[in-house]
Amino acid sequence: MALQVEDLEDQSKYRQILKIPYDELALFVLDYLRKKSGLMIFFWSVCIIILGIALTVRINISGYFLHRNVLFHSLLGLIVFPVLYIPFHELLHIIPYYLSGARNIRIGMDLKQYMFFVTAHRHVASPLQFRIVALVPFIVTGIAFLLLIFVLPGLWKWSLSLFLFVHTTMCAGDFALLNFYSLNKVKKIYTWDDVDEKIAYFYEELKKIKNLTTESHRGTRRKNTEE
Question: How far apart are CA 219 and CA 227, in angstroms?
Answer without folding.
Answer: 12
